[in-house]
Design the sequence.
């Protein structure tokens, strides 16, 4: 990795702070194990479990759903290698990485879109973790159940208390920067397996150690409908992780080598994600057999267990898992993205505080409780992550041929490689707008879930094609390609800002 000391000259100061600077030597501490745990933490949450079992609602049988999810996992693996290798080589966080594609100021468009989605999910995941804690509290102190009714702004008194405690704990953890994020991920990722395996064993025992892999929700589908549902499930798996996939450079930049990236991705995605999917489907099929409902979440299932000790342990583990995924996926990204808007005034920590405050303002329990809000807002904005992915990949691998002039990512000089037109790359912005509108229409307009599931691949493919065509038509790609040869940053050096202190 390039030694990255960048002099904070006046022309660059507006685009640079210690957190957005390239990763310095000695800061590449995220080994394969850490990346493995990162993907584990990403998968191990109540939201991920709910998503996996929710795919049964599309009409596939248990084994068909599991196979379709596996195909999606393979697609996610491929995408993570493309983004991860690029992020590790350039050594900068996602919003800075995007400057080479969208322009030094245009990068704020995809960055804030990603950050906006993460803010909502940060609040939602904190709320889901608080539900697990409430189950724990009521089981230990039954008298507290009276605190779960009433309240204001849609939250009960106990709901507000648990939510705000978890909110404060997460903010405290993040105040220590990216190194504590790595340690939190290393802990939260593996520990949830204890709870999930224990829950699976208990459910299998309730089901007399037998499940029907052919069980399904609804009637048997025709062959064309089965194929359509299979494709939909596979792409929904990728779409579910589309946000973390786009900003994976936030973490990959701390890896010491391309080999570490690929090994961590291989362990964390095809191996771990597949295992989690299998376990989730097993628990769901057991629930379908025992309780007649395959869509019960782990908290609801745990609440049915007689043993107080088991309930307490399980609730704690699920809360840890949900907080873990929140810290990794829904806090780091908006912290960097918000900082990128005004690096001179907003640090990673300040961006994190803004993220945390916004997560309360959006009243996440109301969003989670509204299918309309989830589908039309989060679904619509989330569908834009496909176009962003396609545009970034085409620009980095095909137009710039994996070359980036790191120093110019922080330069407002009109002659800089990534200044384009007043800091915006017209080709990338146009490609994002057009493909984004199409992706959003695919996601929101059709009544068929099988069609809406195609928003990610349609957006990614269209964004990639438009970026390729428009860049060559406008000449932006050729100009960037000529001026983005790899340049050791130490050749432009000073010592005022060194690496990332996040």
Sequence:
């Amino acid at each position: 990795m390039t030694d990255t000391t960048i002099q904070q000259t006046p022309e660059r100061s507006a685009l640079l702070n210690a957190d957005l600077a390239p990763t310095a030597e000695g800061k590449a501490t995220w080994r394969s194990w850490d990346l493995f745990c990162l993907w584990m933490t990403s998968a191990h949450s109540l939201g991920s479990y709910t998503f996996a079992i929710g795919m049964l609602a599309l009409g596939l049988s248990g084994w068909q759903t599991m196979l379709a999810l596996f195909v999606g996992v393979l697609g996610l693996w491929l995408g993570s290698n493309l983004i991860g290798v690029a992020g590790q080589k350039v050594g900068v966080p996602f919003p800075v990485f995007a400057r080479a594609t969208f322009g030094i100021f245009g990068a704020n468009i995809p960055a804030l879109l990603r950050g906006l989605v993460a803010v909502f999910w940060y609040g939602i995941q904190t709320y889901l973790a608080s539900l697990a804690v409430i189950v724990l509290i009521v089981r230990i102190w039954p008298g507290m159940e009276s605190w779960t009714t009433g309240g204001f702004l849609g939250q009960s008194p106990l709901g507000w208390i648990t939510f705000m405690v978890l909110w404060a704990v997460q903010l405290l953890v993040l105040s220590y920067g990216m190194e504590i994020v790595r340690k939190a991920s290393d802990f939260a990722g593996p520990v949830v397996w204890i709870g999930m395996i224990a829950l699976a064993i208990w459910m299998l025992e309730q089901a007399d150690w037998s499940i029907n892999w052919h069980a399904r929700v609804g009637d048997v589908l025709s062959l064309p409908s089965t194929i359509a549902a299979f494709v939909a499930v596979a792409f929904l798996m990728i779409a579910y992780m589309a946000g973390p996939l786009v900003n994976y450079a936030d973490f990959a930049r701390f890896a010491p080598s391309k080999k570490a990236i690929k090994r961590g991705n291989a362990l964390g995605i095809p191996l771990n994600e597949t295992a989690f999917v299998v376990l989730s489907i097993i628990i769901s099929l057991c629930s379908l057999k025992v309780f007649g409902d395959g869509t019960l979440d782990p908290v609801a299932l745990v609440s049915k267990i007689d043993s107080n000790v088991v309930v307490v342990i399980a609730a704690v583990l699920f809360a840890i898992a949900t907080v873990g995924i929140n810290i990794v996926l829904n806090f780091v990204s908006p912290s960097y993205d918000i900082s990128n808007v005004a690096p001179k005034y907003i640090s990673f920590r300040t961006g994190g505080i803004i993220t945390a405050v916004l997560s309360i303002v959006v009243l996440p329990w109301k969003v989670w409780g509204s299918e309309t809000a989830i589908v039309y807002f989060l679904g619509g904005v989330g569908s834009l992550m496909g176009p962003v992915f396609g545009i970034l990949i085409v620009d980095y691998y095909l137009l710039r041929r994996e070359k980036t002039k790191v120093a110019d990512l922080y330069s407002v000089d009109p002659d800089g490689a990534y200044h384009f037109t007043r800091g915006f790359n017209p080709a990338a912005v146009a490609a994002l707008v057009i493909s984004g509108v199409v992706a959003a229409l695919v996601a929101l307009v059709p009544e068929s879930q099988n069609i809406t599931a195609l928003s990610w691949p349609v957006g990614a493919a269209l964004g990639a094609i438009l970026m390729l065509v428009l860049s060559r038509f406008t000449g932006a790609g050729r100009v960037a390609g000529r001026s983005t040869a790899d340049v050791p940053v130490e050749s432009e050096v000073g010592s005022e800002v060194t690496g990332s202190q996040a």
